[in-house]
Specification:
With 94 residues, the chain is mainly α. The chain has one domain. 65% of the residues lie in helices and 0% in strands. The chain is built from four helices and no strands. The longest helix is centred in the C-terminal third of the chain and has 26 residues.
Length: 94
């Protein structure tokens, strides 16, 4: 029977990757200490180094929207149009 996959939190990944970047031991020692595979330590270290510059970039301030935000804005627009249409129809009966 297969073992279920483990899901690690972002804070745990950052902690392990930071240890690897600081070279607080070999990758094998770090992997043994945290009970993860050596390749996982290397992968998290590479991700940390590749995305480190994002910590110092100024935030966009609303210029970028996520897919969820776009979906919600679209729904708000649809509901506004529907409300306005129905309110005009009610005005005829008053």
């Amino acid at each position: 029977m297969k073992k279920p996959r483990r899901n690690y939190s972002p804070s745990f990944k950052a902690k392990v990757a930071l240890e690897a970047v600081r070279e607080q031991g070999t990758a094998a020692e770090i992997s043994r200490r945290h009970k993860v595979h050596v390749n996982q330590v290397y992968k998290w270290k590479q991700e940390l180094l590749a995305n480190m510059t994002r910590a110092f970039e100024p935030s966009a301030g609303g210029g970028e929207t996520t897919d969820r935000e776009e979906e919600l804005l679209k729904k708000i627009g649809e509901l506004t149009v529907e409300r306005d249409f129905l309110s005009r129809g009610l005005d005829r009966f008053r």
